[in-house]
Write a structure and sequence with these properties.
10 strands; 267 residues; alpha/beta; 3 domains; 11 helices; 3-stranded antiparallel β-sheet; binds zinc ion; 39% helix; Rossmann fold; single chain
Length: 267
């Protein structure tokens, strides 16, 4: 196990660790990326947890979001469109609208295109991986630019437009429509969980980037991969719960590490 603990890596240390990661990826037959909130933070999207987290600033929200949505979907949409919602959601929404993919997102898309990575499983809802051009993408917690029917699971893309009033019932089945983004208390949609699990089952290497590996069930996939024999690599500025099961831990931001990894792995 190699672990570099300082956030102030010297350039040779950084390059040496990137070289180790590149070697493992080159030798793997199916490498999967798994990203968490740290990726989004580098695009200016505030996290929920931690010192500058939205919940730290605005207080922890009600954890029954999905139950209250199901009780009164129209009321939920009306509160949202009138911005009569939690302060932390307003701040998050404003940041999401402005966010653009950073060098790390673009590097992931390029790594996939050249065949170094086979797919990306993300916990982020910001749609920045899609915008950067990642194609084989599983968004475990949904995509903020889509609507989803809670009955049949049909998804509709919104692009950059936010709905101004409660959307019509589902075109296919007449069911209630919500944002694709998974709410508190809402199960991960079956199709998404199945797709994520299929990627993890195929993986002999998982590159975990900017994830504290604390949000279930997404984080559980990393332990499943490890116990099935996959090599786990971590890119994160700080130590995480995942660190003990990682073959290599690189203490760096994604925006710095991933372009270097791309450069090292490029033909
Ligand atoms: Zn439907």
């Amino acid at each position: 196990m190699t672990s570099t603990s300082s956030t102030e890596l010297s350039n040779p240390e950084l390059l040496a660790t990137v070289g180790q990661i590149a070697a493992i990826i080159s030798e793997s037959s199916y490498a999967v990326g798994m990203t968490g909130a740290g990726m989004s933070v580098e695009s200016g999207i505030p996290p929920f947890r931690g010192a500058d987290g939205l919940w730290t600033k605005h207080g922890t929200p009600q954890m029954d979001g999905y139950a209250s949505f199901k009780k009164d979907p129209t009321g939920w949409w009306n509160r949202r469109t009138n911005r009569k919602i939690d302060a932390h959601i307003n701040e998050l929404r404003d940041a999401l609208v402005k966010a653009e993919p950073h060098a790390g997102h673009h590097a992931l898309a390029a790594l996939e295109k050249q065949g170094s990575l086979q797919s990306l499983v993300t916990q982020n809802i910001d749609a920045l991986d899609e915008k950067a051009g990642v194609e084989n993408l599983v968004e475990i917690h949904g995509n903020r630019t889509k609507l989803r029917c809670i009955e049949c699971g049909d998804r509709v893309s919104l692009g950059d437009f936010g709905p101004l009033f409660a959307p019509d019932p589902c075109n296919k089945c007449g069911g209630v429509v919500k944002f694709d983004t998974v709410m508190f208390g809402e199960p991960i949609p079956d199709d998404v969980m199945t797709a994520a699990r299929a990627e993890i089952d195929k993986a002999d290497c998982v590159l975990a980037i900017g994830t504290s590996a604390t949000v279930r069930p997404a984080s559980g996939l990393l332990w499943i991969a490890q116990s099935a024999g996959a090599t786990i690599i971590e890119i994160n500025p700080t130590e995480t719960k995942l660190t003990p099961i990682c073959e290599v831990s690189l203490r760096s931001t994604a925006g710095v590490a991933l372009p270097l990894l791309l450069e090292t792995l490029s033909p």
